[in-house]
Every structure is written in structure tokens, then in C-alpha cells.
Amino acid sequence: MRLLQQPQLASKKETRTVGRGFQPLFFIIFTLLMTAGIGARLVYLQIAEGANYRKRAEANRIRMIPKQPERGNIFDRNGKLLATTRYPRSVYLWPMAHTKPSWSIVGPRLSTILNITVEEIEKKLDDAGSNSSLVRIARDLNEAEITVLKEYANELKDVEVHTEAVRYYPQGDKLAHVLGYTRELTPEQLKRKKQEGYRSGDMIGQMGVEKAYEQLLRGEWGGQQVEVDGKGRPIRVLGEKQAKAGSDVHLTIDLNVQKAAEKALTGRNGVIIALNPNNGAVLAMVSHPTFDPNLFSKRRLSKKDWESIQGENHPLLNRAVSSAFPPASTFKIVTTTAGLESGKFSPDTVLPTYGSLTVGGVTFGEWNHAGFGSLGFTRALAMSSDTFFYQIGRGVGGPTLIEWTRKYGFGEKTGIEFITEETKGHIPDEAWKQRTWKIPWTVGDSINMSIGQGALQSTPLQVSVMFCVPANGGYKVKPHLLKDHEEAKNWRESLNMKPSTVNTLRDGLRKVIAEGTGKALNVSTIPPTSGKSGTAEAWKNHVKANHAWFGAYAPAEKPEIVVLAFAEHSGGGGGSVAAPMVLQVMQEYFQQKTAGISVSSRADKVEGRRFSH
């Protein structure tokens, strides 16, 4: 029996070992394939993706700590400081703090100290991105906040406090619409400006000179390149680039004249503008109501602050360039020019005036309801006779009147630096009337336009430019605010007016002051002056509340300043309401000259050097 069982046992042993000879081969092949795959992957990572991964590794190891540039100062024409920089302290946070376990402590603690929500902090960090450097989460800290941050320094290891530059306007609400203000970039602005080197939290000019000359004032960011450890803490400085301060900007504005204009307009909504009629330099530009641009340098606007700049009178609106109104009888300068240049009327033309004039079944009244007898151009300007200019408008017709309106610069931007803020106003014409009302231009439209009423709309700055034309002998100028704006200073466009036309205008505007509606300026405290009044029909809350205009230039024979005053819904006439405002500004300007402005200019320049970079 044992002899028979032995072969069976041997057979079973042989069955259990079948396939063992192939296992080493399978293992070797599998190992070779795995090794080849890993090798190929290593080759790909080292050669194809090596530069990319090295760059990412460097980004995790090296950080840029940016250094904000100091914004350029803004000065008036005599070197007086209008905008500068102050240095409050701000809170910065490393973005990686948001992802750390300690954020549950850090976030709420910062929220309590800084009085901002955790969600606001997180949004700032998210907007900046996890690989960005320090992110500002609050600025303009007070002493109490700084003290508390120091007390909790152990908890807030990823929080840093730095001094930074913040815009400051020493003149407060004076010059607000000229200077504008700076404010943190909105998310929409950041998207557009990233390619220009702007980053989250940057301040940018939002209106006025701050916006127009942003690139000059802004400067260039600097910073430190630092190596950080695994926790993101700085180890050593690898390199540094100094921030480059922005350029200082000197304006054409005369601060003393500006203050006089501010004072003259106190208590009224409106505009006062002073220009050099020979080169377009803006000496003063006031728009009321106004606001304090320093509000926008605060960490956040209070409810009271917000309400003050969002009032029903729209204090942020620059009425000098962004609002248009009927120019009223100031426009008779254009009507006179159109009449004389058309060849249909001469400087010797005399026309009867009436209490009213009926044309095409429509009655157009005289402002005094009686008329002034027979008048020529100069006396008609002095008395501001409506019925005289109705006849001129009817005589030249709509196309000629519109042509000269355009030549004077109405219906287009003046060219001042406030490109995005300036409106063109509106010149009605045949095409507009057909498009809007589906009816043709009529004689009545020409009559309305001849006295600056109807659908004609102009900005106060456009009206100021109009007054420059007779003042400088027949040239349109380009208003500008940059003192060294050579292109604007040297830009003069001749309207190719006959000398007799210019002389008639200047004689008539002089008579306005000497014996007409502008007698308020016929005083010994200023040189002989020329000007024109205007009263535009307007309603407010269904109650008639007229706009008052007065524009003037002086000295009459050799003008060096044009002043325009506009009082919105004043309820009074141009000669009684706006002319006294013009007088106050003129008096300040000529008192400076009498006192010897060159002496104070030298002193102001010394002051300017003290504040410049």
C-alpha cells in the first residue's frame, strides 16, 4: 500500500508548483514598466514642467512687500498748497492668514477692533488672491485702535500696522470740484486698471484734477522682495526698489480769487468762473453746493457724511461743466455777431422796439413790457432789449444764427481737462426738431434762440468762453487748469469777425456797465468794465424761479480777466443778483494787483518749495 501511494503524493506536489516559473518574469516586466512610467514622469516634470514648478516654488518662498508712492502735491499759480499728503496708519494682513486654523480667532478679533465685518475682511483677501503680498484691510487708524492691536499682538501674528500716504486737502470744501478727490479703486476699476500696475486697495483720482492728471500725480510703486519661511514670515530682504513719488502739479487757479468767488456765492446754488481771456487760464471755478473732499480720505463714510454728498441739490455735481442751462440774454453777444456778420444788418442799424412782438400768431414780450423806443446795437445791448434782438434773429434766420452759435463753441466740449465730466450742452436745429418733434424749424424758434431761450442749453464754462471773444478781439480760447499747459495756452481760434463787429460788441458791452443793466459794476474800486446780464426763465417745483447770469471783463480797453456768475433758481435778475457777485471777484483780483501781487508770489513760491518733493 505504501508503494502505491508514493507516486500519487509526488503527482500532487508537481501540480501545486505549476506556473511558479513565470512569476519572476511577470514581476520583472511589471517592475520595468513601473520604473519606465515613473522615469518618464520625472523627465516630464524636470524638463517640460521644471521651469513652471521652480517658478511656483519661488512664489511660495519669495514675497513682494509693496511700498506705496507718495502722490504729487497740487499748488495754485502762486505756489499755495491745495492738495498734499498726510501719514496715518493702516492695518495690513497676510492673505494666508485666512486659510490658517487661527482664522477663527483672528477674523472676529480684527472685526471687533476695526468695526468691520469678517465678511468684508475676507472679501478683500479673496479679491487680492492667496499669492499676493500684504493686503490693506483698514486705514486711518485712531490711537485707541492701535493700542488694542498691540494688546492682542500675540493673537494677530499675521497682522501688520504700517504708515501710509493719504490725500489731504488743506482748503477743505474750497476747490472741491476743481481738485476732485481720490478714493479706493472699485472692483470694476481694478479689472480695467490691473494692466497699468494698479492693485487692490490702491487710491485713484475719481474726479477733477485728481482724475485728469492721475498719471502725473500717481507715482510708481516700489517695494521689498523678501524670503519667507514655511509659515509665510519674512526671513531676509533679497532686494528693494524705491517708490517714485508722483509729480507736483501747478494749476492756473489763484487761491485768493477762488476764495473771493466762494464767498460771493455763499448761500446760493450756482457757479462763478474767472478766466484769462487771452489764453484760457482758469483763475477760479466755484460750483455750489460743494463738499469736503477730505471725506473720501476717511476709512469709511458715516451715514451723515454720505447724506451730505448725496443731497437733493447734488453737491458732487460740477455745475460749471456738467450742467447746462439756457444762457438767456448773455447770448445776445452771439445774436449781435450773427446779425452783423450776415451782412443783413450794419453797425449803424436802428430798429424800433416794442412792448411785445407778434410773429406767426405768437406774441413774444419785452422784458419791461414797454419797449425802449428806437435803438441801435450798442444801446440794445445796454438795455438788453428783447424785441430788438427778436428782429435780428428773424432777419438772419435759424441756419445763420446756429452757425455762429457753433463758432462760439456752444454744443461742444470746451477742451478743459475734465473730459469725462464735461457736457456738450445742446444747440437746437432743424434736424433735431424733426427728429424729436416731427415738425420743421420755425421763425418762432429763431426768435426764442436770439435771446438765449427755447431749447438752447449751455454750460457756464461755455458762456465764459463766449465772453472771452469780444474781450480778446475775436478769438475763441481753450480753458485749462494746468499752469504749464503750453498747447492750451497757445491755442487761439480766430472767428474771422470784421473789426467793426468786434468794436460794436465792445462798445455795447461797455454801455451795459456805464448806463444799462450792469451798473452794479460801475464803481471806482475796479477799472472800467464791460459785461452783459441775463435772466433765464425757469421753474422749480412748479413755481417760477429764474436763473440769473452776469458776465464781465476788465479793464475794458485791455482785458485780463473775465468773470462769470450764474445763480441757479435765484428768482431775481442777472443785474441785481449775479452782477454783485462778479464785482466781489473783480475787486479781489484788482486789489491783489494794487497791493503788489509779485511780492506775495515770491513768498508763495518759497512756501511751495517747502512742500515739494
Automatic annotation (TrEMBL):
The keyword Amino-acid biosynthesis belongs to this UniProt entry's keyword annotation: no
Subcellular localization: Cell membrane; Membrane
Entry keyword set: Cell inner membrane, Cell membrane, Cell shape, Cell wall biogenesis/degradation, Hydrolase, Membrane, Peptidoglycan synthesis, Protease, Transmembrane, Transmembrane helix
Main location: membrane
Stretches assigned to the Penicillin-binding protein transpeptidase domain: 270-587
Domain Penicillin-binding protein dimerisation stretches: 67-237
Pfam families: PBP_dimer (PF03717), Transpeptidase (PF00905)
Transmembrane feature ranges: 21-44
Bilayer topology annotation: Single-pass membrane protein
Keyword field contains Cell inner membrane: yes
Family indicated by similarity: Belongs to the transpeptidase family.
Protein name listed in UniProt: Penicillin-binding protein 2
Annotated organism of origin: Brasilonema octagenarum UFV-OR1
